[in-house]
Amino acid sequence: MKSKNWFVVRFLAPAMLCLLAIFLYPALRTILMSFNKVGFVTDNMKDWEFIGFANYTKLMGSPLFRRSLWNILKIWIGGGVVILSLSMLFSVIITSRIKGKKFWKAMLYLPHIISSVALVTMWMQYAYHNQYGLFKRLFELIHWNSMAQFQWTAPENLFLAMMIAYSYAGVGFYMLIMVAGIDGVSEDYYEASRIEGAGIWQQFCYITLPMLKDIIKRCIVLYSASAAGFFVYSTLFSFNTENATVTPMVYMYEVVFGTGVGSSSAELNVGAGAAAGVLIMLVVLIVNAVLNRIIPSEDGQ
Amino acid sequence: MNRYGKRKVRCKKQLRFIPGYLLLGIWLAFTVAMIGWIILASLSTTKEIFGNQILSSGLHWENYANVLRKHKMSVYFANSIIYSLSGCIGIILIAAPAAYVLSRISFRGKSVINNVFVIAMSIPSVMLVMPLFKMATSIGLIGSRWTLIILYICINVPFGVFFLIGFFMSLPKALEEAAEIDGCTPDQAFWKVMFPLAQPGIITLTIFNFINIWNEYFMALIFANKTGLRTVSTGLQAIVQSMKYSGDWAGLFAGVVIVFLPTFILFLFLSNKIMAGITGGAVKE
Amino acid sequence: MKRVNKVLAAALAASMVLSGCGAGTSKTAESSPSEESKGAESVAAETKEQGSKELEGTLVYWSMWNDTEPQGEVWQEIVDGFMKKHPKVKVTVQWCGRDNKKILKPAMEGNETIDIFEYPFEIDLNEYVLDLTPYVDKVYDTTDGKPFKDTLIPSLLITPGTMTGRTDILPAVGYKPWMSLFMYNRAIFEEAGVTAEPKTWEDFDASCAKIKEAGYVPITFDDAYASWLPGMYLAREKGQEWVQKLVKDTTGEMWKDEAVVNMAKAFEDFAKKGYFDANVSGNKWPAGQVDFGNGKVAMYYNLTGLPTEVADIAGPDFQWGGFSYPDVTDGAARCGKEDPTGCTLLAVNKNTADPELAMEFVAYALSKENDAKMVEHAGTTPATVDTQWPPALENMKDALELVEVPLKSGGDIASNPDLSPTISENFIKLAAGQITADDFVANMAAAAKR
């Protein structure tokens, strides 16, 4: 069967090449880099200086990096709960027998398709603006003055503002997935439960939720991936790196390509950036492992 | 139940949905208000925006003319189209054969390779950019469109493989045998028989990839940040920045509208297909 | 449905090819791919007896401006003019905008061909700059027989060194000298009865009170520059070097020093008296400076480049003024003598193919004629001696010339990037009246401690 093997190789080779060149090699190299002091991103390996775990200790000692970890935790858990619950809520609404299902679906999903830059500009320059903004005018209209004065872009509120904007764009996506899942649940179950007198809430708890376990888990996995890579919204909401919006990826970008955050000396240490990357990767692995424990796979993949 | 009773029940049923309608309505109102105001602001002047008197001096279409003239919006759009299209085509060309082989042909090391793809998918791009940047530099590819094209293709291949495996697995086993009987080589069997049959999956995957690449920001920021190479997302950011420095807020909003309008219109026409693509891309059969 | 898809795909593919072609034919403002410039050989300039030299070669200039800004427009004219004067020279420009901070380094590390660039002093590109000391002594085409350095305002040859921390070489020449001043609206000052620019903190306090009574908001600021106000206060009290030590302190003890407490109390006081705009708690740049341009607020601590940025909103009738950060109690007399000053740095790549050509371009760009254009069109401060200052900045001319000790922005309080966000955050809260001076000190001490 030599020809069969050759055939397999030919078909598989390009993909394997991608894998090796773009994933495995860079990942390994990044891990190596994280144990060294590296002056510039483009330095050759011989210019590296081995310093063991020093990058990691310095990283964990940096208040800005620690804050970025705390932020990402908030984004993941806090944001995750809010976004997925909202998506669940909307998906239930949409799959109940309301009119105009297609329209509502499309409307909810629209923000996800629009460029983040455009959306954030709308939020920052209109919705949240402290003088002519949408929220300010709205609250003034209903005479809720304390909220009208609310400074959405103040450091202490910026995170909330960012997450609201992020949710607006994300809810539609997860809603779609859940709707697809709910649509797959046979109507008979609901019919039977209704005959027995179950209300909406009970139907939800005892039928929808269990059947959707797998879909929900998939949503959590997807959300976790996007939370780990949280970058765009942070950079668009802040002029300089800010405590309120910094995430590990932002930190890493700044260390490697930006203003040398994290080095108290004037030298740039790209190794620290690599260390940040490795830490993010570890977090992702841990999260995936935890998720697999908590919600075992139904379909034995 | 008599007819009167049925009508009462139907009304009551719709009443139950009022909270639902309310929530959706609020969302809709917000969306309309935001997008609507931005469009109106883009037709005003900067002074009016800050003075709370939008459109008091009529429609200023010149804001759009200014943005289009001063900024290379056509270049940004062209670039995004180039990256997205070539990315999608490249991903399919590489992922489909691999997925086919991994799903239907048994050979040694298959499960290992399967797992490797799954692991690769979970590596965040942040782990990869630095060595990738160095690699691109050494080959001298920084400053060329190819860098980003190759990157977009390769980064999305593992997911493509993963996704398409499911589709190929669902095709009947007898097809290969039938093709062999007909005298096809394994190559032809794939390209002439299996590949066309996987169309739904491939189209779904393509839509998914297209949208992702179109809106991508992080890699574009690092690898394609020159005027001639910018995509729509990084390009808009450059425009917004420059408008802030020159105090041209009306122009800023005009730029935002120009960027978001094509996607919006496309979505209007293809919303069903797009949403199906997204769902299919995330929900394995 | 399938056929429609095919047609669509073909159309998109066609447009891709066409737009690919279109994007390929670059205008002079587009940057050429690095392969092009790398291949071109630049020939040494032939000197003729008198008149202009015959120059040949290519130059790549990465600009910190956007082509839509006034400065960018002038640079475009400069580039076009240079190419017209020397038909065998090709200059391509890459308009980076302020993102040049982020993209210059990766590009230079990627061996991108960049001959001339504005050096963003916040990052360290010292590895890549050509020492210009020997070059500024030379005579160029446009310097009228004088050595280049004699045509420029003296500070432009000093501040590049102080800004980049390289005093051993001349890393760049400067243009558009700037100063950090309290920019103020003279019309408001007049109306409120403030007749003299405040020189001490007490004067400052009194001026603010008068302005508030007249119905205007005395001071505002944006998140982007928030740390400059406390930074300068401390620099007035103890000098810039002390500030630099302060932000690098890892025990947290320095933050409890009397100097910091005084500073915090001073601003707490101002906050109580309502001298800060109500929106400072949430101002995201450029919200605050727009308020200033609108005539709502009297003072905004910023750079002399501000008039250009808010020109549209302020309008041509805005009466500009700027005064040096006042002296504070318990500080040495530094007002007017020590101020953040610098310039826009124009540097040449160490690896440039033809330094002479590059310098000719620089000299041309900073010639009297082009400098005057920049001043007129962009409202910037002049780089050449004896050039007329723009009307908006006329009254600040003396301030620039009187500076004895050039400081870094905000007294260099932002020199520790790890701590900077916390400083800004706490100061914003202090100025908004949300925390007390004691809170400020305690927070900073805790944040600094490792």
What does this structure look like?
The complex is a heterotrimer of chains A (301), B (285) and C (450). Chain A is mostly helical and 301 residues long. Chain A has a single domain, classed as MetI-like fold, CATH 1.10.3720. Chain A has a two-stranded antiparallel ribbon with strand order 1-2. In chain A, helix 3 packs antiparallel against helix 11, helix 4 packs across helix 8 and helix 13 packs antiparallel against helix 14. In chain A, 48% of the residues are buried. The model of chain B has no long low-confidence stretch (mean pLDDT 80). Chain B is globular, with a radius of gyration of 25 Å. With 285 residues, chain B is mainly α. Chain B has two domains: 60 residues, no CATH class; 217 residues, MetI-like fold (Orthogonal Bundle). At the A-C interface, helix 8 of A face helix 4 and helix 19 of C.
The biggest sheet of chain B, with number of strands, parallel, antiparallel or mixed sense and barrel status, is: none
Strand content of chain A: under 5%
Q: Which pair of chains has the greatest number of interface residues, and how are they split between the two chains? A: A-B, 88 and 89 residues
How do the helices and strands follow one another from N- to C-terminus of chain A?
HEEHHHHHHHHHHHHH
Corresponding CATH architecture of chain A: Orthogonal Bundle
What is the C-level CATH assignment of chain A?
Answer: Mainly Alpha
Average pLDDT confidence of chain B is: 80
Described by the principal axes of the CA atoms, the overall outline of chain B is globular
Which stretches of chain B of 5+ consecutive residues score pLDDT under 50? none
Which regions of chain A have little confidence, pLDDT < 50, spanning 5+ residues?
Answer: 260-267
Our measurement of the CA-to-CA distance between the termini of chain B, rounded to an integer number of angstroms, reads 41 Å
Say what the CATH topology of chain A is: MetI-like fold
Helix-strand sequence of chain B: HHHHHHHHHHHHHH
Query: Oligomerization state of this entry?
Result: heterotrimer
For this structure, what is the CATH homologous superfamily of the largest domain in chain B?
MetI-like
Report the helical percentage of chain A. over 70%
Structural class of chain A: mainly alpha
Given the structure, what is the number of helices of chain B? Answer: 14
